[in-house]
Write a structure and sequence with these properties.
Number of strands: 19
Number of domains: 2
CATH class of the largest domain: Alpha Beta
Number of helices: 12
Bound molecules: manganese (II) ion
Distance between the termini: 36 Å
Radius of gyration: 24 Å
């Protein structure tokens, strides 16, 4: 778990970058209606969570900065015996204080009046308040249909002395650099993912349906410690693996199929994102092995190339070059440009509280960044789709593969499959 001192530090860093005479409001969000009286499971706004550690629907964080000093409030739903009879215990004010390190925790029934005191500048010392910061990420929906921009515009109408500013980028730039505690969280997410993959290696064989293996992964991480998935599991056999985000794992796994898995468990919201490709029969065919070795070589070369100063674009150019060279050597393509038919995504994205962690993809890497390394080749005419994905930490002088305990060598995979 992330310690409350770290949440306090994270907020301090944000206060250091925002204007004096400003107020920040961040919303936890609410679950989205599904149908009738059912909702989708609540997913907390990750920027709110990053700065508070709180995962309670409808909570709001407010801080105003005057003369370089920030005054903070956290508003959470009130505990209510009648409601709790139906939905279970809610977070107490004391617990919220302990998790977040915010002293001023207040229940939501006081939100409107407290916010009005601040925005109308009625508190002593905030007569100059003139800036309102919101997370204006365009798709940031508060309840499935109202955006923070809508909320901001309504507030500006009521308090016309405020000008609206976006704090989204400020927060995501901080999120891009992981602390040592965040690396521990990610390692544990990867560890759980490996538990699921090991179970898959014990069960995979021709004659199963894809969904039997994707559900085995979910069962494994739930059975381990009630973990959630980072994202819906991709389990794609044979030609299905040439669809990048193959959505509907209903196919029968045939004798000589490779099966591509792209999956991850999450740990306190930190997401693992791993891909592995296994031969259902237990042995790669010669052709499959040739293609697999090209992707694996690329995966390893990218790990070596990751270091501070490199950009994701440079990594992708390198990946494209290696994959093209490999396919030319085995005669599948005859010039480099044809690689676009067989490799058409990007080799890396940032990873963290989101699987595709928000980031500025043009910034050169710095120590503390965590990115994926996921080359792939998708050859429809051979019915082969292969992706090998690891999660890589950028260090002071290079990189460290956080998922180095998850096997990926041909020999290791075939050996593991022998003992099914
Ligand atoms: Mn990925």
């Amino acid at each position: 778990m992330i310690n409350k001192n770290e949440y306090i530090e994270r907020r301090e860093k944000i206060y250091n970058t925002i204007d004096n005479n400003s107020v920040v409001i961040l919303y936890a969000g609410a679950s989205v209606k599904k149908s009738a009286d059912e909702s989708y499971p609540f997913e907390v706004n990750r920027n709110f969570y990053y700065l508070t550690g709180i995962c309670e629907e409808n909570s709001v964080f407010v801080a105003y900065k005057q003369h370089g000093v920030a005054t903070e409030f956290l508003f959470i739903p009130e505990q209510n015996e009648n409601i709790e009879k139906w939905v279970g215990k809610r977070l107490s004010v004391d617990d919220a204080r302990e998790i977040s390190g915010i002293d001023n925790v207040v229940t939501l029934n006081q939100f409107d009046s407290e916010l009005d005191l601040i925005l109308s500048r009625k508190r002593t010392g905030i007569e100059e308040l003139d800036t309102l910061y919101l997370d204006l990420e365009p798709e940031n929906l508060l309840d499935g249909f109202k955006t923070t921009k809508d909320v901001g515009q309504a507030l500006i109408l009521n308090y016309p002395w405020l000008k609206l500013k976006d704090i989204y980028k400020t927060i995501i730039l901080k999120r891009m650099v992981k602390s040592s505690a965040e690396i521990v969280e990610l390692k544990e997410a990867i560890n759980k993912t490996n538990i699921g993959l090991k179970n898959i290696l014990k069960k995979i064989r021709p004659g199963l349906y894809e969904y039997q293996l994707s559900s085995l992964f979910y069962y494994s991480i739930q059975d381990y410690d009630f973990s959630e998935l980072s994202f819906p599991t991709i389990c794609a056999s044979g030609i299905n693996a040439t669809t990048l985000h193959y959505p509907n794992p209903k196919s029968f796994i045939n004798d000589n199929d490779l099966v591509l898995f792209d999956l991850g468990a999450r740990n306190n919201f930190y997401c693992a994102d791993i891909s592995r490709t296994y031969p259902a029969s237990g042995k790669f065919t010669e052709k499959q092995k040739q293609v697999y070795e090209i992707v694996l070589k690329c995966n390893k070369e990218i790990i070596k190339a990751v270091r501070p100063g490199v950009t994701l674009k440079e990594l992708n150019n390198l990946a494209t070059e290696i994959l093209a060279k490999g396919l030319m050597e085995i005669g599948i393509i005859h010039n480099e440009t044809e690689i676009r038919n067989y490799y058409f995504h990007s080799v890396s994205h940032h990873l963290g509280l989101d699987t595709h962690d928000p980031s500025d993809r043009d910034l050169p890497l710095v120590p503390g960044n965590v990115i994926t390394d996921e080359p792939g080749l998708y050859i429809k005419e051979l019915g082969i789709g292969i992706r090998i994905e690891d999660d890589i930490l950028v260090t002071e002088d290079g990189s460290y593969n956080l998922s180095n305990s998850i096997i990926k060598e041909v020999d290791d995979i075939e050996k593991a499959l022998k003992f099914r």
